[in-house]
Amino acid sequence: MCTSTDGTLPLLRLMHLVSPSLPVGGFTYSQGIEWAVETGWIRDADDLERWMADQIGSSLRYLDLPLLVRMQAASRERDQAVVSGWVDILLAGRETTELRREEAARGRALADLLIAWGLEDALAWKPQLACSQAAGFAFAADAWRIAPSDAATGYAWSWLENLVVAGIKLVPLGQTRGQQTLARLATLIPSTVAAALEIADEEIGTSTPALAIASSAHETQYTRLFRS
To answer: How many CB atoms lie within 10 A of CB 197?
Structure first.
């Protein structure tokens, strides 16, 4: 039976998907920020904000979010081959071993969680979902009838929050300054999502040399708080 609260459930499901308490290990990665801090590329809140804003306007806009909405559409059509193809493109866009391993590790954790939640076909789709967190996120967003634009917004927010929190620990920043940085960067998300939804297939792809250098160097960094 439908109730007046049914319309709020997709929002609650989205909040669950982006919760920092979700056991996918997002908080254990810094995606190069740890090395960028050690080498002096990121010295304060302004540097961190510029670092993150550059990635929002490049990799998030032209790679992650366009692929996320395509994976969600393919999940709706129950087309595993198409999802696998988009996952391959996403992994090809992860420019270091560290970033590819992170994507896969988080994918495996989320796939196991989707199965534990009892999402229909999640077990049958595990080979595809376990390769990429984005694939599992898209699969769950479709299963829970979350609008693609909302799913992309939530995905972007979760990515941003995890990395700004890493920056708060590493720079280090005070909690208030860190939250100010997060609030300013959040204003970039709506326009980035809107632009990402308009990206054509042939426009998908980006290169982030600074991120690639920092991530590669982090793999062999002498001391680390975050995983590689």
So the answer is: 13
| Non-local CB neighbours of 218 within 8 Å, separated by 6+ positions | 30, 32, 34, 35, 98, 224, 226, 228
Q: Is the pTM of this model over 0.85?
A: yes
Q: Answer positive or negative: Cα dihedral of 214, 182, 27, 194.
A: negative
DSSP 67-81: HHHHHHHHHHTT-HH
pLDDT digits (tens, 9 = 90+) for 104-140: 999 999 999 999 999 999 999 999 999 999 999 999 9
How large is the greatest C-alpha to C-alpha distance in the chain, in angstroms? 59
Asked if residue 23 lies in contact with residue 109, where contact means CB atoms within 8 angstroms, the answer is yes
Average pLDDT, the chain: 94
